[in-house]
Design goal:
Helix content is 38%, strand content 20%. With 740 residues, it is α/β, with parallel strands linked by helices. A hairpin with a 7-residue loop joins strand 15 (489-499) and strand 16. The protein starts with a helix and ends with a strand.
């Protein structure tokens, strides 16, 4: 619900809030510019009487003296029937520069306040402020949910590049945006009298005045007691009119001063409501708080980026949505399918099941787990297909399920079946599906079959599950799920380096560039040269072997800025894709696509990085080192078989040690006299690793599952004296794994 509110509201309000944010950011510069021109230091020691006397001497026809919130002192005067205004020195009264509000600033102010549409525009601005408040607060709560709680909100953020940008900029800007939007909304509501606002009433003009000869302005007692820093405005009497008075406005109130006696004739203190409004006005405009204006202005500049990345995230999620045909109503359905998904990927499997059951003659109703009805009067079976989000949490479309299931009523012969989707390399593999299954068992429901978990969206495992479930239902369920065809790019092999043949571990480093499409000579001239897609070291490239729709994924050892796509391939005797890639010759082409892997990245905030890998697991690690242009301390622990046969990237690593992109290299080889494994090196370096972890180091592990288990056991032993667990490091984003 919260995601829908944030997404659709953001989509509808994007143009409005972007215009408000950009114009507000431009205006945020003005308080700092005004402050830079103002002379403020020491003005609290000067009285208004002294300043007014200096100005009266230099400006005989002075009409008004005004002090801005920035501290600038402005003199308004008339000369030969022409009005003028100057910025003056508060100590001497001398002119600093002519004063005028630039046409551009006036235009931006009017645009920000009303979009140049007067009253309708002011109403639109108020609505925009309200929408910004809702978007900011809803986004903040979504961020809390995504990070796993308020305490984790500033921890490293997993997700795609667009999600990463959206999350990072929202964390930076959210407080400034809420402050700006709330204060702007309050001002708009007060203007349209939607909230009670106390109107300051100025004191009545004095009925009697002295009428004598005007005294020198520096001799007026009322002005002598007021510091310049308290002044807002002093209006001089009309020349030659002995019955006119000085009008005075200060931070504390408004009053009149007799020009002959210098007495304060009447004075009205500023009320509490007016002070509150002025404080809110100051927070919104930054006038008098130039540093706050700059901070809020910087926050406002993030709004266009948030709108752009938010739109891209929305469109990507929208494109991944699955349309269900022949979807029966909840009241008429014989079978119910409920889906829990974070990115809509589970819906493809649900649609396949839905279509197969419909073809078998059942009336099937499919919906998200959040939308579970209170009862399904004709249904006899319920299938629940769900992924797991984060550390065993419910995915987006199942957040409400656990509460709603408590109110669900069913009849005695109601059966259920839970199918989970996950990835075995995560500790919380299929945990939410297991939790759902346990809750339904506790309710006394009858399981059609035991809970099952599909690893990495395996279509083969899904088909086998369908066969088992179909046999229990007396059906021949052939669930053939075909993932949406992914747009691929043609890549040409331009370089390869072979290793490991001598130790029966044939491995190759393969480098690809975009392949040019073959077509007519004329069209070749018109076509722009193909480019690599955007990717970073540690992302994944999906490879489609010949005559196969099932992609195999390999970690990337390069970034797109390296202008090559680089992978490491170990040839497995029965491996379809590894043999396909290993047997490529220079000039051969393959089809591939990029899958972002943002959860496996070294964090710049960490003091140092420990990279641990074995065999082809070095691929993303060498990519991180290669692109370590800031010389962040990086240490590599890597294991192979024989340094004379399968020491991958040996020359390159030695170069990185020399240019400081790599701080330290520790190797372990299992086919030498030492017969050492990477976990042995970790245990031997325990004191060093303990010190690094105590200083905030991050650990990244890449390689096969057996290696990762040995490494995690070794690290657990190493850190045990530190009173910290591996789970603690994982929760802090300081222990990341890319395991295959």
């Amino acid at each position: 619900m919260l995601r829908k509110l944030h997404s659709y509201l953001g989509l509808a309000a994007s143009i409005l809030v972007v215009l408000l944010a950009i114009s507000g950011a431009v205006l945020a510069i003005n308080p700092a510019l005004d402050r830079a021109q103002a002379k403020v230091s020491g003005t609290d020691q000067i009285s208004v009487a002294d300043v007014a006397a200096n100005i009266a001497h230099l400006y005989p026809n002075v009409e008004q003296l005004q002090r801005k919130a920035s501290g600038s002192l402005i003199v308004y005067y008339s000369n030969a029937d022409q009005a003028g205004a100057d910025l003056v020195d508060p100590f001497t009264g001398e002119k600093i520069a002519p004063y005028s509000l630039s046409p551009f600033k006036r235009w931006v102010q009017n645009f920000h306040r009303s979009f140049l549409l007067d009253t309708p525009g002011r109403a639109a601005g108020g609505i925009g402020a309200l929408l910004m408040v809702i978007l900011s607060i809803s986004g903040l709560f979504m961020l809390r949910t995504r990070q796993g709680g308020w305490r984790k909100i500033f921890r490293p953020m997993p997700g795609s590049i667009k999600q990463d940008l959206h999350g990072h900029f929202s964390r930076f800007a959210v407080l400034g945006l809420i402050l700006s939007a709330c204060t702007g909304g309050y001002m708009s509501a007060s203007r349209f009298e939607l909230i009670p606002v106390y109107q300051q009433v100025d004191p009545a003009f004095p009925e009697t005045v002295n009428g004598g000869k005007p005294a020198a302005v520096d001799g007026l007692p009322a002005l002598q007691t007021i510091a310049l820093t308290d002044l807002r405005e002093l209006v001089y009497p009309y020349p030659g009119d002995s019955l006119d008075v000085y009008s005075l406005r200060t931070d504390q109130g408004v009053g009149f001063i007799d020009q002959a006696s210098g007495e304060l004739l009447s004075y009205q203190m500023v009320g509490t409501a007016q002070k509150i409004y002025e404080f809110i006005y100051m927070l919104h405009t930054g006038e008098g708080l130039w540093w706050l204006a700059l901070l809020v202005g910087l926050a406002s500049l993030s709004v266009p980026l948030l709108a752009f990345t938010g739109l891209q995230i929305f469109m990507k999620r929208r494109r991944s949505m699955i349309r269900i045909k022949n979807n029966a109503t909840a009241n008429s359905a014989e079978i119910v399918i409920l889906v829990g998904s974070e990115t809509n990927s589970t819906w493809g499997f649900a649609k396949t099941l839905h279509d197969a059951l419909s073809l078998s003659g059942y009336r099937v109703h499919s919906n998200s787990m959040n939308n579970i009805a209170s009862t399904y009067p004709k249904a006899k079976k319920m299938f629940i297909l769900t992924s797991t989000y984060g550390d065993g949490d419910a995915p987006a479309s199942a957040k409400l399920f656990m509460n709603k299931i408590k109110r669900f009523t069913n009849h005695s012969n109601f059966q259920f079946c839970v199918l989970g989707f996950g990835d075995r390399k995560f500790d919380s593999y299929g945990q939410f599906a297991l939790d759902v299954n346990n809750v339904l068992l506790d309710k006394g429901w009858n399981p059609l079959s035991s809970v099952d978990i599909i690893d990495t969206q395996s279509t083969q495992a899904f088909n086998r599950w369908g066969t088992v479930v179909g046999s229990l239902m007396g059906l021949d369920l052939d669930l053939i799920y075909r993932p949406p065809r992914i747009s691929t790019q043609l890549l040409q092999l331009v370089d390869r380096v072979d290793y490991g043949a001598e130790v029966n571990a044939p491995t190759a480093v393969l480098r690809f560039i975009p392949a040019e499409q073959k077509s007519g000579r004329f069209f070749n001239k018109l076509r722009r040269k193909p480019r690599l897609p955007q990717f970073s070291a540690g992302d994944l490239v999906g490879i489609l072997p010949t005559e196969s729709d099932n992609a195999r994924f390999y970690s990337l050892a390069s970034a797109s800025k390296n202008r090559q796509l680089e992978i490491c391939v170990h040839q497995h005797p029965q491996g379809i894709c590894s043999n396909y890639l290993y047997n490529l010759q220079l000039g051969d082409c393959i089809k591939g696509f990029i899958r972002e892997n943002p959860t496996f990245r070294p964090q710049r905030e960490q003091s140092s990085i420990l990279l641990i890998g074995a065999g082809t697991g070095i691929a993303p690690l060498i990519g991180f080192i290669r692109n370590n242009h800031t010389r962040q301390p990086m240490r590599l622990y890597w294991g192979g078989r024989d340094p004379n046969s399968d020491f991958l990237y040996r020359a390159e690593l030695e170069q990185y040690l020399q240019d400081k992109r790599l701080t330290e290299l520790v190797t372990a080889f299992s086919r030498t006299e030492e017969r050492c494994y990477i976990q042995d090196k970790l245990l031997a370096d325990a004191p060093k690793i303990q010190a690094l972890i105590s200083e905030g180091a991050q650990i990244l592990v890449c390689g096969g599952r057996p290696m990762s288990k040995c490494v995690s056991a070794a690290i657990t032993e190493v850190i045990s004296p530190l009173q910290i667990t591996l789970e603690d490091l994982k929760a802090q984003g300081r222990y990341l794994e890319d395991v295959y």
